[in-house]
């Protein structure tokens, strides 16, 4: 069934693309997509070319040129009502400044947090109710690297970092935004490139030297990579305003016309990702100030860059991530893959991971543990200190200290039994409860001892 739907969508795609310019020229039309036809508010399950209008009107009130035909080249059409708005940046007059959502100053820059320009922008009606200077807030989506020089950058939208055509290369950015309580003391980088094209509303900010960054998204975790958006995929995002929200992709064929304000004008973006809010988990997927967020699947792969949505919160729209990266000439920063073979042994309890450490400790990483190198170290320790790994990969040990040149490395081991649990003096209840971080540090300590031995021999 899914394959049949995909084939039907592919057949309709060419017809839709050929007709969308004429459809967008009609009165009140703001978007064209491929989706199920609705009759009397009910989903018919029949794929059609859907024409979105700001307000549905009877054909009798429309001129012949503005009427949407019932079908185009044999493909049925449907007219649905929707009002589209940019999902940011949130803005406020300088004279009315009050901090809003996510006012946290993050020591390490990462995705999903508040950001905005250090400057204010002078606006007048109809863009704003009252003429004056305004400040803006959006979302830092993710960390990226410049393909040309490897510089670390922050990814967001054109309309977040640039606001309008008054921007310049070098404009300073702050985290959090001025709207969220930021100031010149919170500067983190300079606007480097931006694009507002047929596919992408994007910008990148080069991070200042010395600023800590992380390839993570707040409340979601490490960025694993990126992938093409596909219909039916469950997604989530973390933005400055609505924070962590959930939805699903309903289309990758959305074309939308949006008013970017009198300075920029009306722009049409093609091949956009349309996301429906999962109302069982979120009231809405996005709102003003969430622009610039990255949209991620359940494997933490980025599929899009959020930029707009419907005013009622039902729909959210995102640029396809590959187009974003290519137009801005950057690559996503992804979290390093850390392998912890010892931990894997604890989790999987492989018999091949047997290891005995006696007075002279020779630590050999067996191929079955997926280890890439062998570490041999000589460590002085009390004869009572015996660390044994039986075939089940459980560890039994007494408390001991590895000693070399006055460097003490504590090893957790069973102590007095308290309520059926071991108390090893480090707060660990049993060997299975020793955190992964300890073993990573423990192995690093052994390797450091080996390196010191090698240095003395050299």
TrEMBL record:
Annotated Gene3D superfamilies: Trypsin-like serine proteases
Protein name: Serine protease
């Amino acid at each position: 069934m899914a394959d049949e739907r995909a084939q039907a969508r592919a057949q309709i795609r060419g017809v839709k693309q050929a007709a969308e310019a004429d459809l967008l020229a009609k009165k009140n039309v703001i978007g064209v997509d491929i989706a199920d036809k609705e009759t009397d508010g009910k989903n018919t399950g029949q794929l059609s070319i859907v024409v979105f209008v700001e307000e549905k009107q009877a054909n009798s009130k429309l001129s012949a040129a503005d009427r949407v035909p019932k079908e185009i080249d044999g493909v049925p059409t449907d007219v649905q009502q929707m009002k589209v708005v940019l999902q940011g940046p949130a803005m406020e007059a300088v004279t009315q400044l009050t901090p809003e959502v996510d006012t946290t100053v993050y020591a390490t820059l990462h995705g999903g947090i508040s950001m905005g320009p250090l400057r204010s922008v002078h606006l007048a009606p109809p863009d704003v109710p009252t003429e004056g200077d305004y400040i803006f807030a959006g979302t830092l989506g993710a960390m990226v690297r410049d393909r040309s020089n490897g510089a670390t950058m922050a990814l967001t939208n054109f309309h977040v970092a640039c606001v309008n055509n008054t921007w310049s290369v070098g404009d300073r950015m702050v985290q959090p935004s001025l709207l969220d309580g930021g100031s010149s003391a919170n500067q983190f980088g300079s606007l480097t490139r931006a694009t507002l094209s047929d596919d992408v509303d994007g910008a990148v900010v080069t991070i200042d030297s010395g600023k800590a960054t992380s390839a993570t998204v707040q409340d979601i975790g490490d960025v694993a990579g990126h992938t093409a958006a596909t219909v039916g995929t469950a997604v989530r995002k973390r933005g400055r305003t609505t924070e962590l929200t959930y939805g699903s992709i309903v289309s990758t064929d959305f074309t939308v016309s949006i008013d970017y304000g009198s300075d920029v004008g009306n722009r049409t973006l093609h091949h956009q990702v349309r996301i429906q809010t999962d109302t069982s988990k979120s009231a809405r997927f996005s709102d003003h100030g969430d622009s610039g967020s990255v949209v991620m699947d359940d494997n933490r792969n980025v599929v899009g860059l959020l930029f707009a949505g419907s005013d009622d919160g039902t729909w959210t729209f995102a640029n396809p991530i590959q187009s974003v990266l290519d137009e801005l000439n950057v690559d996503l920063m992804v979290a390093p893959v850390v392998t912890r073979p010892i931990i894997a042994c604890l989790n999987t309890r492989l018999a091949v991971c047997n290891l005995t450490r006696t007075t002279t400790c020779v630590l050999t990483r067996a191929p079955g543990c997926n280890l890439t190198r062998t570490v041999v170290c000589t460590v002085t320790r009390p004869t009572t200190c015996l660390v044994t790994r039986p075939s089940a990969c459980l560890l039994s040990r007494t408390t001991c200290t590895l000693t070399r040149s006055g460097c003490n490395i504590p090893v957790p081991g069973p102590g007095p039994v308290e309520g059926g649990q071991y108390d090893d003096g480090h707060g660990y209840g049993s060997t299975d409860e020793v955190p992964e971080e300890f073993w990573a540090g423990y192995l690093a300590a052994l390797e450091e001892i080996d390196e010191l031995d090698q240095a003395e021999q050299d």
